Amino acid sequence: MRVLLLILDAFDPVRLSPHLTPNLWSWANADGAATGTGEAVMAACTYPNHASFATGVPPSEHGIYVNHVIRDDQVVGAWEVGPSVPTLFDSYVAESLAVLGDHHLVGVMGARAAASHWPPNGDLPLDIELDPLGYPADSAVLARLVAGLAEAARLTIGYFGSIDTYSHLFGPESEEAREAYRRVDGRIAEIEAAISWDEIAVIVVSDHIQNTVEDRPGIDLRPVVGEGTILADEGSAILIGATLEPTELMSVDGVAGARSLDDGNTLAWCEPGRFFGPFDSPILRGVHGNVATRTQLAMVTGGHPKRHLAADVVNAGPVPATAWAGVIRSMLDQ
Ligand SMILES: [Zn+2]
Predict the structure, then answer these.
(1) Number of C-alpha atoms within 13 angstroms, CB side, residue 218?
(2) Percentage of the chain surpassing pLDDT 70?
(3) How far does residue 107's CA lie from ligand 1's centre (Å)?
(4) 100 vs 86, 88, 117, 223, CA distance in Å?
(5) Cα gap 324→50, rounded to integer Å
(6) Domain limits, the chain
(7) How far is the CA of 160 from the centre of ligand 1 (A)?
(8) ipTM of the complex
(9) What architecture is domain 2-211+294-333?
(10) How would CATH label the architecture of 222-284?
(11) How far, in Å, from the CA of 207 to the mean position of ligand 1?
(12) Distance from the CA of 288 to the center of ligand 1, in angstroms?
């Protein structure tokens, strides 16, 4: 029994169709498959959700609320810190493979503990094609993933980032984003050719969707929180390095919600179409992080009979991002 968890960053489940994504459509309609939606942890950013995929716990336990953390009055990349609890890779040390098209995810998901991981040590390789935001291009990821699948690890986690990249740069409704969906779907056929269908359960998820930016510039919280307060703005969510009254933040135009966190910081999110500044980001056409972007793709397919353990979870309703680690353990351990 083997499990492949394939993560397609920012894949909006409404885009799943025989026209745009024929290979994924075929996977979704395979015998015993189940397709539905999942729900991101807040903030609906890439790293907190990947940390939850890998650990099975929410940000209050793994410690990553947005793509950065605030430590000793400094904004630090979540990949430098990693989740504060064990991950799937710790459970299946000798039997796991990670191929992650965002090198920072190696640290975020604790993938250095895997038997094999790429990019090595989470460092951006110098000799590969990069996407327009500077992450490993899907083509580079696919080559490593296909090679890795041939080695038949019991647990393989793969990640493609191009839909997120093109949705950020051109907007999630853009033709460029549609083309990214089409290209990612083309990779699915090559992955299918690299696996033994009857021996594997395949889980395909996304970490969030994106909203189109409709209002510029970004929301500036500095007049409310004070000039000296640390801000880690992440699209339509923001981490504030201070304990603040949620009601005070929600008095700011565009702020939709806020929550005080146990670690002394405050998380806030904005209305769809808005984003947090304070500065305009002219390259940003699509954003995520707020409640409106919590939708995830949740698909279970493959030919191994144990896939039903995961398919049942999908059929039961929106799958919390924290559920997948337990689902994977249940398939590998039973
Ligand atoms: Zn993402």
Answers:
(1) 23
(2) 99
(3) 15
(4) 19, 15, 8, 39
(5) 11
(6) 2-211+294-333, 222-284
(7) 10
(8) 0.99
(9) 3-Layer(aba) Sandwich (3.40)
(10) 2-Layer Sandwich (3.30)
(11) 5
(12) 8
